[in-house]
Each structure stands twice: as C-alpha cells, then as structure tokens.
Amino acid sequence: MASEHSFDHTNASEDLDKAFSGMLEGGGRSAKAKQKKKNKAGGKSKNADSEAAAQEKKKGAKKKKKDPKQTTRKLWVAILSLLIVVIGVGSIIGAGLTVVHTQLDKVTKVQVNRKALGINSRVAKELKNYRNIALLGIDARDMSDDSQTRSDAMIIASINKETNEVKLVSLYRDTYVSLGDNYGLDKMTHAYYYGGATQTLQTINRNLDLNCEEVVVVNWKAVADAVDLLGGLEINIRESEISEMNKYIKDTQKNIGGSKKKIRRAGKQTLNGVQAVTYARIRKDSAEGDHRRNERMKIVLSAAFEKAKNLDLDQLNKIANEVLPSIKTNITTNQMMEILLALNSYKITDSVSWPYDWTDWTYNGIWYGPPVTLKSNVTQLHEEFFNQKNYEPTDTVKEISDRISSLTGRW
C-alpha cells in the first residue's frame, strides 16, 4: 500500500512573504509547498548488482543511515540568512555606493569551470530570461578548505529577468540523482564532495534541466555568527521541540564555539546563534517528526529578515566585516552591485521543495530519496515555475529517470 506524507508550509510562507514584502517594497503571494512521499510497489531491480561497484567506489562520501537527529546539518537558511547582510547594506544606498562596493569585495571568489556545467543547449535557449543561482550551505568547519565536504543545503534562486519575480526551490539533499559519468547515481548532497561547486552545478543542471552558472557558498558556522551579530532572533519554541534542541545544542557549540545555553521553556524567546542553528537543523520533533524542519527554516529566515531590515549602517557594516569573508561566490562584485541596485523591484512569489514526489529506498544499508519519477518531477517544475506548458524533459533527464526507476523499482 502506498503511503503519502504531505506538509503544508502556508503559515511559514506567509511570514516569509511579509518579511520580504516589507524589505523589498513588493509583495509575494504566499504559496503552499506540499511535498509528497510516495511509496510505490516494487522492489530492487535486477540491475542493482550492476551498480554495486559504483556504489562501493563512493564509500568515502557515504555513511550508513543514522538516526535523523545525528545527520549533518540541513541548513538552506544558512545562505539566505547571510545574504541578509548583502541586502541590508545595499538597501542603504544613501550611504554611498563606494561603501557597498568595498564591502562586497570582501566576499571570497570561487572558481567554477563554466565549460563543465552540463547546460543543455535547448535549455539554455528556453530559460534565457531566467537567472538561476545556486545557493549552497556546506558542512565545512573551515571555509579556507572545503574539500571533501557535502552541501547540506541546496536552493535555486530563480530570477525572472523580465518581471524581477524571484522563486526559490529547495532541493532535498538525499535525492537520488546522477552525479555524472564518473560517479554514477548517488545522493545530490555528495556532488560537492566529489567536485565542489562545479560538480554541484553540473548535477543540478543535468538532473533538473536548468541553466545554473552562478553559485553562492557558505558554511553553517557563519550563520551562527550572523545571528549573534544581529542580536539574536525572536522565535516561538514549541514544547515538542525543546528536548530535541537541547540534545544538539552542545554538539553545535562544540563545532562552532559560542554559548551552550539550553532552552528552558516553550514560547517566544530570543535565540542566540548556536540555538538558532540548532533549531533550524533538527530533523524532527516529538509532535510532527521530520517534516516540520522545512517550516523551521522558513521561520528562522523570516525572523532574520525582520531583524536585519531595522539595523543602521554601522551595525550592517559590522556584520558585513565579520560574515562576508565566509561567503564564496563566482558572481563578480559588479554583478552583485547590479542585483543590489535593482533590489527594490524584486519580489518573492513562490517557494517550494523539490522533488515534489519521492519515496524511501535503501541500498547496501544506505537510505536514499529517489524521485518518483525524475522525469515527472522535472516536468512539474518547469510547467509551474517557468510557465513551460506541456514541458518535455531533455533526453538526458529521461535517461537518468529510467536508470533510477530501473535500479530502485520505483516508477
């Protein structure tokens, strides 16, 4: 019997839209982003053994499935929280463009091989009016060496060049996709481990029929620093979340430093950096389980925007001095300036998680979340996000989709 888990993000989306609306002088419609998990009949394909060698080859990047509480941080809020700083600095244009330009120069540049991004020529033509930027949160402790680290958070910020509408697509890190000819089928999160930003962009483009050429990378330690510099965030903690948070506050503090202060009560309260990171990263609570974490991430993001938009220039400069060096991107300073100058015309109109339909699958003791199917999920994304009616995925997507279904037995 198929089981289905759905999650309604309406409340968090409304809060997020309001935060962006006040800051960008626009208004985004709230959107329900429902994620469905389908368990379809079927077992492992006979082709499973043929993939075994490739799976063994990737042992260095994989670990056996842990309890969700012990998995690495799922922080898509990481990148967007830090971008608050850029947005905030840029919004105070009256202070002088030179000041803003100087701050943006502090962002570290990351090298991307544009010839290896896997962008299909047809896709490049069809999406020419969309600027799709990949926002990555990685589990590196030290941004000076992010080799052999995974991307715990992956978001596509899609900007419509004609309307300046912005749509956000959060990619599930455990989604089972193709990482290219050298690595075969694997979790999407492992793309960064194998080849950094270039391999991640290639994986996104080949599996989702996208044209991502730009990337922003940040580690989760910098998020805690940003929250502390913002003076903490006002968050309403549920009774069912306290135990889970307190279990992992010490673990978070051990890795990033800061306070070990635990949560003593439910209700609205000011969270410090360590607490906010822990709140966003926990994968379940006793009442709603794993699915509420996406809403928690939006809650943190909304609170951060509300706090950042009320800071003065001196406060924003202080945050920028501390945080911007922890961000890596291949977007040039001048390109970032162009985005900032057009900021007031941008408006967030949608935010969803992808894939829409997925299932559970365990192979060699490792848990995966294969899309059901990749082809149908890509079709839905392009029809809903890019208004491409009757979208037909590329041959690359079709071939990958067939491989995933054949191996997992999920069609």
Automatic annotation (TrEMBL):
TM stretches of this protein: 75-100
- Would the keyword Transport be found if you checked this record's keyword annotation? no
Task: Give the compositionally biased regions (Basic residues).
Answer: 31-43
> Which Pfam families is this protein grouped with?
LytR_cpsA_psr (PF03816)
Key words, A-Z: Membrane, Transmembrane, Transmembrane helix
Q: Where is this region: Disordered?
A: 1-68
Q: Which residues form the Cell envelope-related transcriptional attenuator domain?
A: 150-309
Compositional bias per record (Basic and acidic residues), positions renumbered to this chain: 1-18, 46-58
The family database entries (Gene3D superfamilies) matched by this protein are listed as:
LCP protein (3.40.630.190)
Q: Which domain of life is it from?
A: Bacteria
**What family does the database annotate?**
Belongs to the LytR/CpsA/Psr (LCP) family.
Q: What is this protein called?
A: LCP family protein
Organism listed in the record:
Zhenpiania hominis
What's the source species' lineage? Bacteria, Bacillati, Bacillota, Clostridia, Peptostreptococcales
